[in-house]
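Lecture 7 notes. Example A: sequence first, then its C-alpha cells.
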Amino acid sequence: MTARAHRSTRRLSPDRVKELILLGIITGSVVVFGFLVEGYLSGRFFNRLTTSVVIVGILAAAQALVIFSRNIDLSVGSIVGVAAYLTAAFLASNAWANPVIAMLVAMAVGAVLGAINGVLVAYGKVPAIIVTLGTLALFRTLISLYAGGVNVTAAELPDWVLGFNNVTVFSIAGFDLRLVFLVLVAVVVILQWALRRLRGGRRLYAIGSNPDAAQQAGLAAPRLIWLSFVGAGSLAGLAGFMFMIRAGTISATAGSGLELESVAAAVVGGVSIFGGSGTMYGAFLGAILIDTLELSLVRVPEVSEFWRDAALGILILLAVILDATLQRRFHRRLTREVRRPSGSDSQRRRMTISGVPDGGVADA
C-alpha cells in the first residue's frame, strides 16, 4: 500500500466504513439471490424495491434524527397511521386538493404529534422510551376513536391518489425511477447536508455524543431535542402520506409495526443507539438492505417466515456489534495519534526553544 493510499484509509471515519460495508453487503446479497432466484435481476424487482423502501426509508431518517440526540421514538408507526387516516379523510372531503397540499397536511399532522413527544422529553425530562411508548398507544387509541371503525376507501379519494405511487420520472430498459423514490432521496440528501453544514445539526450530534459537555458549553439542548422530535414527526407524517397513496384504503390500524422496522433500518445503517454518531446515508442504506432481504427471502421457498423475522434480529445484533467494534478501534487509533508527536509538534517545540523556526531571523 502506498503512503497516499495509507493516509486515505486512515482518514476514513467510522461512519464511512459502515456505509462501505453496507454497500458491500447489499451488493453481495443481490449477487447471491441472483443465483438463487430465477429472474431476480430484473426491472420488475428493481421497481418493487425502490417503491416499497420509501416508507421505511423515510421513517429510518426520522428515527435517526432522534437517535442522534441519544433518544428514540417508538411512536412513529402510530404517527404514520394518524397522518394517513386524517389526510385520507381530508381528501375524501376536499377532492380539489392536489398532492402537494395533501403532503403538507400529512406533515403538519406529524409535526404536531412529534411536538407533543418533544415537549415531554426535552422540557418534561421524561425518558424518550417511556414517552413514545405511551404516545404509541395514545395516538393509536385516539385515531381509532375518531375513525369509529370506519375505513376511508379508495373510491372516496381523488383519482390521482392510486396512480401517484407509480408516477415514473424516466425509465431505462424496464428499470423505472419512480417519483416517490426521488422524494426519499431528496429527504436523505437535504437532511444529511443540514446535519453536517448547519450549526444546529452539528450541535445535535454534540448533544448526543456528550450531553454533559454540551450543557456545560451552553448549547440549547432542550430546544434542539424538541426540534428533532418535531422533524421526526413531520417525516413520519410524510411516510403516512406515502402509506396512503400505496394502500388506497386506510384504516385506523395503518402503520402498525413500522416502529421496529424504522429502528432496525437506522441501527443497521450505522446510527449508534448511544447517540452522536451515524449518517442519513447510512440509515438510507440500512432501509435498502432490510427491504432487499425481505423482498428476496419471500421468493426463496426453502426459507420460512420465522427465519425471515430472525434475519432482521440478526442484522440488528450484528450492526450493534460492528458499531461497538469500530468505535473502540477508532478511539484507540485516535488516542495513539494524539500521544504520538507529529512533525509539526516537533517544529513548534523548536520554535519555542530558538524563538524562530529553521534558524530564521526573529523580528525586532
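Example B, a different protein, same format:
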Amino acid sequence: MLAAALAVLGAACGGAATNGRSAEDAGTTTTGQSTPTREPEVKDIPPVVGWNTDWSKRSIDLSELIRGLSATDPRDVIPPLDEPKFETVEEASQWLDDREPVALLELDTEARAYPLRILTWHEIVNDQVGDLPVAVTYCPLCNSAVGFSRVVNGEVLRFGTSGLLRNSDLVMWDRQTESLWQQITGEAIVGKLTGTSLDFLPVSIVSWKDFREGFPDGTVLSRDTGFERAYGSNPYVGYDSEQRPFLFSGEPDDRYPAMERVVGVTVNGTNKAYPFSVISQERAVNDVVAGEPVLVVWGSEGTASALDSPDIPAGRSVGAGLAYLRTVEDRVLTFDAQGDDAFKDRETGSTWDLLGNATAGSLAGTKLTPGVHTNHFWFAWAAFNQGSPVYTGSAGGQ
C-alpha cells in the first residue's frame, strides 16, 4: 500500500517510488491493504548525484538514511511551497469540511491554518508570519506536524524535502548549505550545520471547524499553489490502522501501538509525550515539565484522520490534542474538564475552550499561551526520544 502511495506522489511530482518500479509500473492505486514484506536496501548514500552536502560532517551513521524516492536527485521531487498564498476563513469555508484536519500555527495575534489535504502533497511550507520566517512541516508517514523558525545564525534558510527518510521521518534539506535536517527533532544531522537545532514553534492538528470558529479573522493556506495535485484525496489510505510503520528500521517501542497519536511537549530541552488513549480519558491534564506548569487538553472528538479514508474529510474520528502553559497573570491555574471541549479552572472558576480562550468568568477574554508542542505517531516520537518521560495517567505518573 505505502509503496503504491509513494508511487502516486512520485508520479504526481515527477519522481518514482522506492520499491524499484517506476511510477507508471506501480500505477495509481492507493487502496491496497498490505505493507511491503522486504525492507528496502540502503544504497547510494553518500554520494547522491548533484549534491554539495558535506557528508564528512554528521551526527548519525549514514546507513540510517533511506531513500524515499528513487529519482537521481530526489530533493524537492515532493515540492515545498516557497511562496504560499493565503485566503480568508470565509473563502476557505467553500472548500474545507468541518471535520478535516488543519495544522494550526498561532503566533502572537496571528493564526494560520495549513490544511493537511495540502501539506500531504508538499510536506513543507516556507512562510513568514509577521516579521518571523517560519517553516510549517508535515510528515505523513509519522503524522508529525512541526513548526520552526527559519532563522539560523542570522540567516533565513529555505527548507525542502530531501527524498530521504530516517526512522520513517522526513529528512529536510536547506538550500543555503545543503545540510540535512531531521523534521521531528529540528536538528541538522549531516552537513555544514550539523548539530545546529532549529527553534520550535507550537503547532497542533485541529479540525477546520475549531479553527474557523476560534479564529474567524485567521488566514488559510490556499489551494492556489502553482501545482496540480489531488488536494483532498489521501494517497496513504488506511495507513494509520497499520501495525507497522513504513520504511522503519528496527522494532517500534511496544508500550503503545505504533500508530497511537501523541502530543509531544517540549520545555527547556525536555520532551514529554501524552498519548491520545490516555489524555482522551482525562481531557484535561495538569502537569509540570522541566519546572514549567503545563496543561494538555483533548477534545473535538470528530476531528478526522488525514491518513484513513481515500477522501480526507471522510476519515475516521481521532480527536485533537493541544498544550498550553498554565501560568496566567503570575498565577498557576488548575483545570478540570467540563463536558465536551470546555474546561474550568479551580482558582477563578473561569470557563475555557479547547483553543485556550477564557469564555466566561473573571478571566473572560484571557488567552492561554500555547506551549511548544507537536503531534506525532507514537513510534516516531519514541524513536527520537528514547528515555524521555511519557504521561501514563494521573494515577500512573510517568
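Note on Example B: The CA atoms of residues 35 and 298 lie 31 Å apart. The radius of gyration is 20 Å.
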